[in-house]
Amino acid sequence: MTKKYYVVWQGREKGIFNTWTECKKQVDKFPGARFKSFPTLVEAESAFSQNPRKTIVQKPKAAATTTKPEKESKSLSQEEITVLPFTVKIFTDGACEPNPGEAGSGLVVYEDNVLKELWYGIYHPQGTNNTAELNGLHQAILLAKEKLTYHSPVAIFSDSKYSIDCITKWADGWYKRGWIKSGGEIKNLELIKEIYFLYKELKDHISIFHVNGHVGIEGNELADRMSVLAIANQEKSLSLYRESLDIDEILALRAG
């Protein structure tokens, strides 16, 4: 993989970082984070010099250190999502009518903040809202894996704290304890396992963000319409939406 340098103008720590892993620590779930990759250190230093603070070049650490868990940040707004410097942004949502009942998932792909693709499917006649959200996140990570061939890193947005926390927080502990949860059953375990191992494979190249649902965030609203369409069409496979990508027309479809 080609060497890159990552400039963080707004994050937990500002500066120039040698790896995406270090950059991600500064910007992941940080509201209003501003960062960008550059192919050379000279370009990175030039870009960062526009910031009045002194340039900080991240040096390799002598040994791994243990850090305290980061405080959970607030959900992102439309404005914060728009300025995040990811070429590819994928939104996912799930629907279930009723809950439990018929379930489906929807995905929306933007490139350079321009709507490019809509996907819908993973219909199940007896699902739950949580399984629909997990299926949506699973498909979003699979889609991100494809996009990483051409673009890195990729951002994923979901309005399900449950599905995000299952994969990015809780699953590590469950895995270490042999997939045992203190105090009860791990629901949706096989699906969680599949998503978790995929996430572990890609986590240095993707960032997963939480957004609030039904507050007017365009990508979330479009993903919602696709999840409802998946139920209406009983579409079991993940299918590309081949109708017009007119946003107003899509938003006029039935909401979940």
TrEMBL record:
The coenzyme or cofactor needed here is: Mg(2+)
Q: What is its EC number?
A: 3.1.26.4
The keyword Nucleotide-binding is assigned to this record: no
- Tell me the ranges covered by the RNase H type-1 domain, including all copies: 84-232
Matching Pfam families: Cauli_VI (PF01693), RNase_H (PF00075)
Query: Does the entry feature the keyword Transmembrane, yes or no?
Result: no
Give the catalytic activity.
Endonucleolytic cleavage to 5'-phosphomonoester
Q: Which residues cross the membrane?
A: none
What keywords does the record list, in alphabetical order? Endonuclease, Hydrolase, Magnesium, Metal-binding, Nuclease
* Matches recorded under Gene3D superfamilies: Ribonuclease H-like superfamily/Ribonuclease H, Ribonuclease H1, N-terminal domain
The record's section on PANTHER family has:
RIBONUCLEASE H1
Q: How does it assemble?
A: Monomer.
Homology family:
Belongs to the RNase H family.
UniProt name for this protein: ribonuclease H
